[in-house]
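If you are new to this repository, start here. Below is one unmodified record pulled from the training split, so you can see the exact layout before writing a loader.
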Amino acid sequence: MMKVRFWGTRGSIATPGSSTIRYGGNTSCVEVRAGSHIIVFDAGTGLRDLGDKLLKEFASEPLTVHLFISHTHWDHIQGFPFFLPAYAPKNTIHLYGPPGRDKSLDKILKIQMDSDYFPVELGSMSAKIHVHEMREDVTIDNLSVRHFYLNHPALCLAYRLSDGNSSVVYATDNEPYQGTLFRHTQNPATALDFPTYLDEKFVEFLAKADFLIGEAQYTAEEYKEKRGWGHSPLESVVRFAVQANVKKLALFHHDPIHNDDFVDGMVAEANQIAKGFDGTTECIGAREGMEIILP
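And here is the target side for that same chain:
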């Protein structure tokens, strides 16, 4: 059994307040319990609350966490300095993620906690911290974690977690390649439609997933003005999910200007879009505290 719990579902910047109570204001953080293993996707501000809960649960025994970072934009790493299990010597934290364009993942995390930005340095965390740059798939006992490069201004990874029976895909901060890349047209007769090819490879990566946590930050109208920013319009993530025969899609990375009622409307529209594609994918809105159990 795998159990998924959302600790942060917001994109770009944390948005606490009365208008975001139901879906939440913390930025990206998702916990998956798979057997005895604790897998975490992204270290947004939601990671702080998860850390507090883990400290209580594992008060008298060591804790091992496998934390997979999609990319190192602020809203996906800001919670890590406040992740209290990383300050306990008995604990072990494995950090996975893509390298930066000109810096290692380890260096980026150290820069975030430089004294110019934060009062405690990364080296002051007393847990055993192991940083792994993702260059191949990861195996953790019976679990496999595959990765796929997404279309975003930073190097950004989607992750597919499987225990051999169920599969969860975490794919946030992704823009369709079609419309942002262009075909090489020196010889149109033999040119590869590379953007379409990359989108098709993404659909293959999603194929028959039980649960997709997929970014759907913009409406179609909003996307017109934000093309190239590295985020998805609602229609594209639903279309990809339907094409891949995904069972359930959680709309994720809610835009900071979208209140709870607005997200409700996007969820309803997503289900209509899925039906329009003759799909059976169920669309829901990811909200803080929500738990999904995959048998």
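Two things worth knowing about this chain: The chain has one domain: 2-294. The radius of gyration is 19 Å.
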